Amino acid sequence: MFEKILIANRGEIALRIHRACREMGIRTVAIHSTADADAMHVRLADEAICIGPPSPAKSYLNAHAILSAATISNAEAIHPGYGFLSENADFAQMVEEHGFVFIGPSPDHIRLMGDKIVARTTAKEAGLPVVPGSPGAVESLAEAGTIAADIGYPVLIKASAGGGGRGMRVADTAADLQSAFEQARKEAENSFGNPEVYIEKYLRTPRHIEVQILADAHGNVVHLGERDCSLQRRHQKFLEEAPSPALNEAERTKIGRIAADAARKIGYRNLGTMEFLYENGEFYFIEMNTRLQVEHPVTEMISGLDLVREMIRVAAGAPLGFAQEDIRFSGHAIECRINAENPVTFMPCPGRVGDYHAPGGLGVRVDSALYAGYTVPPYYDSMIAKLIVYGTNRNECLMRLRRALEEFVIDGLETTIPLHQRLVTEPDFINGEYDNRWLERFVGGQ
Amino acid sequence: MFEKILIANRGEIALRIHRACREMGIRTVAIHSTADADAMHVRLADEAICIGPPSPAKSYLNAHAILSAATISNAEAIHPGYGFLSENADFAQMVEEHGFVFIGPSPDHIRLMGDKIVARTTAKEAGLPVVPGSPGAVESLAEAGTIAADIGYPVLIKASAGGGGRGMRVADTAADLQSAFEQARKEAENSFGNPEVYIEKYLRTPRHIEVQILADAHGNVVHLGERDCSLQRRHQKFLEEAPSPALNEAERTKIGRIAADAARKIGYRNLGTMEFLYENGEFYFIEMNTRLQVEHPVTEMISGLDLVREMIRVAAGAPLGFAQEDIRFSGHAIECRINAENPVTFMPCPGRVGDYHAPGGLGVRVDSALYAGYTVPPYYDSMIAKLIVYGTNRNECLMRLRRALEEFVIDGLETTIPLHQRLVTEPDFINGEYDNRWLERFVGGQ
Amino acid sequence: MPREGSKPQIDSALVHQLAQLLEETGLTEIEYGTQEWHLRVAKGGLAPATFAAIAGPSAPAPAIAPVENDPAKHPGAVLSPMVGVAYIRPEPDAVPFIQVGDEVRVGQTLVLIEAMKVFNPIKCARAGKVTRILVANGAPVEYGEPLLIVE
Amino acid sequence: MPREGSKPQIDSALVHQLAQLLEETGLTEIEYGTQEWHLRVAKGGLAPATFAAIAGPSAPAPAIAPVENDPAKHPGAVLSPMVGVAYIRPEPDAVPFIQVGDEVRVGQTLVLIEAMKVFNPIKCARAGKVTRILVANGAPVEYGEPLLIVE
To answer: CA-CA distance, D134 to D71, in Å (whole number)?
Structure first.
């Protein structure tokens, strides 16, 4: 096992990784920008190294600085967390070339899944159901028209290099196609420096369901069930739950097996997530995230596994300690993402935290790097805490979530807690009857 | 189910009960002394009623005031928590006579187990192994000599009305008997107003192992495994774990079955704990606690049950939702009691809490009514927080406990956290090799 | 609670404003505070200032209640010695024990508190005039709750 | 969490400002506080000014760092522009680039920082005299860490 791991991230996920390392007896190296000198992960780590100024490009995205920090601290492995360089194949390759272990999949797999068109083709070949669409990039409006007519409207035009909802446009009818096509290309060009787009069937009321995969370096692959992440606003997940209230046991087992088989076929290693749209009993692969997800705790709660520990074990070459049949899911878990944002306008609200009091007691987990007096810097993501609640069934989980939200105190900042409080009393949510567009409607389409 | 429950307690256990009620959709009434007007349970409850001045005798032990509060708030049931009136049979009876439900066993069972000699006889008749000793009260030194010679030295002289370690003396040889007998009687007289004592075989290196029992009003009884509470100082438990590192599966199943059978035989109802001494593979019943225990969370962690919820359900007349064979234990849990005390001298240290930051993340639960700026009043118990940690096995649990203790910040007060931090690195503790006297030696026999 | 940065800054206008109030009112000292800040100005040869601690990081609830309006703090307040139900008449149709404006003497029953089905007379401990009655007939009262004010 | 002491420091400007307000307003005493800090100044026959350092709700972090002793805050400090390993000599046996007391000119190499196997010369941006060298040869340095002081 590793003696020392460098954590190439910040915020709650840096703390999450630090905790897993501590619990495995592994020493931790925190890296940080000058804006994060007082951050929780910096305070708790065995060593901390300032690698640059606040700008992410010069600190958390600065591969050279991170590798220098790994060198001077004699770290053996680097955990990239999520965001920043976690899905950057070149970074993963540099890490390996410099003799460190990258705690994640191989650079080749990151690269493969990083290009959405290649990912889709690969997924299809590996047996995953995909949304009907263009076989590859669509170069002209004429070609787009032919394909759209073939798969049937509405269609979605998506940037090949896309992510986070940018470079995406819907055409409801043939009349909308031209403007959607042109806007998507333009936004793709602006956002990713690459105007290439492709076309897919647009689903009207899909749910976002993703399957967690874990694979070791010896060809063993398991799935850890699904997460329902349909509650999104502007393609940002807001609340996630496991298991999905929409799936039955047979569907769950089937999609899990399909996802694990596909991961096995492509020789995938470490943790990964296959994201699907789900509508009318059908799954459609959309993309694979080759990293730890923000919402991984809900899977941990129902499977009893520590996913960060598993990532580290697998990266160190250890075989999985269990087979698919050993994995038992029990109970229900929900994660609320708490952002430093106005709960109505969603304007980010960085600043100094006054009182901070996390809820406690049975079945309540808080993953947060906040503390009273901490200043949330304006340079990074606005997610400041994750509240994860477990119950033996969904109803118990909802009731517990409600009381935990009542106890949560974060003063000095505006947060999305009030919106979560409204959400947990909504009949649609209580009944599990929501799709990917429900939350946007609920918050007034903002 | 009840609409409204009055919580006849304070501190973390009042908050614990409040949380269970909230999660069941039951409204809560907090009672409090004037010293606790700012307490967490008071802030969170649906209603709060001040029932008296700081002195416990005039507030939390004031049965009349509590019943008046239940009357004016239209509560249907009263949860007594632990300590205070929780094992007061007269109070339980008054509660019932006034038409409220007492969330606990019947007054008769409380009374039965409240007298230690009667309890011992009852336990023996119900099939529980007991420590060899006098059949009842020992009136004279001569009688004490005969009995001691018969069961063999060392012997323990104990107050019939005793508890908390008062009115207890060991005689190692016949030469010590007279002074031990006289001192025990005197202390019993002073502490409990009753000099009656009895004699038991004194075990040199026993462990304190207790079995959790849960029974409904329809004759269904289950056991929820054991807790090892051997780490004690002056008969006050300091750290508890489940399962016990000393028991094997066969012993666990056997003592659990014996305890459940005994509870069934005496017609016990609601939650209860049978405490045993364990030495050389043998169990010896010492007493039964007819209430919720401080350390109940470790059982919750390994059984997946919410014991306070179960108490409320059973008190409302609901049958248990599971049979013995449905109960599965998994993993390992440890609870650290964190007291506002100097960790070396154990001098209580009430006062104002400065910064407060509870540890979070996977497998960590904190039950505490503290918050930053709260003033711990000097009138009540010094326990201010319980840190409960779960792991899939004991080693994982210990590693997680270590990191959680590193993260816990309680400023402004002296606490026992440093002692827990020392404890978790001690080889004897890590190996599970400790008995009831180990902690006293570890802290220097203070 | 919105909170500004920690950089010490003095609001001179505020000091001037309090200084002027000092002039206008003829007081020798004004102390003013909120949860967030605290200001005291004084004039003349006063006793050394005693500065009470600042409210601090105050928990989820408001720390300071408006002292002057709290009848429980009134020197003439008669506080409930127990939790129960207050009655201001001996019987439903009887006249009240007392009314505002009444002169009361020591030992006179002011209110009954029912607790555990027992009616406990609350007697007057200090003679005076009833200036306020703070409880309604049949209202539940907490320990320490003000029942009436005798001045 | 390791914690440094919040070393009390006096902001003289603040005291001066309040002293001037005292003059202007004719007051004899001003006490001013926020949750973070508290200051009282007095004049005349009063007790001497007490500076009650209020610890405040202060988070785990020190609110104010000791400015004078931190070389990174020194106006002549040369800070490392990257994380890496510092070398004060061009080769293991060579003489150091600079020594304390040297006069340095703009553009002169002061230190090398090795990062990603590349040696980056850190050049002098402002002429002056080297008064302190703060890193040892071969020592790892963070971004922003002071390397030497040129005055």
So the answer is: 9
pLDDT of residue B167: 81
- Which of A31, A41, A68 should we substitute to test contact with D (largest number of D Cβ atoms within 10 Å)? A68
Task: Mention every residue, 6+ apart, whose C-beta is less than 8 A from residue A79.
Answer: A5, A6, A7, A8, A9, A17, A103, A104, A308, A311, A312
CA angle C58, C60, C63 (to 5 degrees): 45
What does the pLDDT read at residue C40? 65
- Beta-bridged to residue B78, according to DSSP, are B6, B102
Question: Nearest C-alpha of chain B: how many angstroms from D45?
Answer: 35
| pLDDT tens digits for range B341-350 | 999 999 999 9
Q: Which of B38, B69, B372 sits opposite C83 (nearest CB)?
A: B69
Quickly count helices (H) and strands (E) in chain A.
Answer: 15, 20
Cβ count within 10 A of residue C109 = 14
Cβ of B403 within 8 Å of Cβ of A331? The answer is: no
pLDDT in tens, chain C (151 residues): 333 334 456 667 777 776 676 666 656 666 665 555 566 666 654 333 333 333 333 334 333 434 457 888 899 999 999 999 999 999 888 999 999 999 999 999 999 999 888 899 999 999 999 999 999 999 999 999 999 999 9
DSSP B88-152: -HHHHHHHHHTTPEESSS-HHHHHHHHSHHHHHHHHHHTT--B-SB-SS-B-SHHHHHHHHHHH-
Contacts of A250 (CB under 8 A, 6+ apart): none
Average pLDDT score over chain B:
95
C51 neighbors D38 (Cβ within 8 angstroms): yes
Partnered with residue A383 across adjacent β-strands are A339
Q: What is the pLDDT of residue C32?
A: 63
Inter-residue contact A261 to A325 (CB < 8 Å): no
Minimal Cβ distance to C61: which of B34, B38, B67: B38
The answer to whether A27 and A21 are in contact (CB under 8 A) is: yes
Structure tokens at A163: 């992510």
Q: Which of A120, A227, A291, A394 is catalytic?
A: A291
Contact call for residues C134 and C70 (beta carbons, < 8 A)? no
Q: Could you read off the pLDDT of B176-211 as tens digits, one per residue?
A: 999 999 999 998 888 888 899 999 899 989 999 999
Q: Which amino acid makes up residue B424?
A: V
pTM of the full predicted structure? 0.83
Q: CA angle, C93 as apex, C91 and C97 as ends, to 5°? A: 60
Total residue length of chain A:
446
pLDDT per residue as tens digits for the range A368-382: 999 999 999 999 999
CA distance readout (Å), A166 to A206, A364, A446, C65: 19, 35, 16, 51
The answer to whether the beta carbons of residues D139 and D133 sit under 8 Å apart is no
D54 confidence band (pLDDT: 50, 70, 90): very low
Say if the Cβ atoms of A68 and D142 lie within 8 Å: no
Average pLDDT of chain D? 74
Yes or no, beta carbons of C5 and A352 under 8 Å apart: yes
Residue B129 reports pLDDT greater than 80? yes
CA distances to A16, A19, A332, A385 from A367, rounded to whole Å, are 7, 10, 18, 6
Assign B317 a pLDDT band (cuts: 50, 70, 90): very high
Q: Which residue is listed with tokens 């500065």?
A: C51
C25 Cβ contact list (under 8 Å, min separation 6): none
> b/e string for D10-49 if b means 16 or more Cβ within 10 A?
eeeebeebbeebbeebebbbbbbbbbbbbbbbbeeebeeb
Chain A residues in contact with D144 (beta carbon < 8 A): 34, 50, 53
In angstroms, the CA A313 to CA A3 distance is 12
Instruction: Give the CA distances from residue D18 to residues A10, A41, B372, C5, D35, in Å, rounded to whole numbers and listed in that order.
Output: 42, 40, 32, 20, 18
Q: Between residues A257 and D68, which one has the greater pLDDT? A: A257
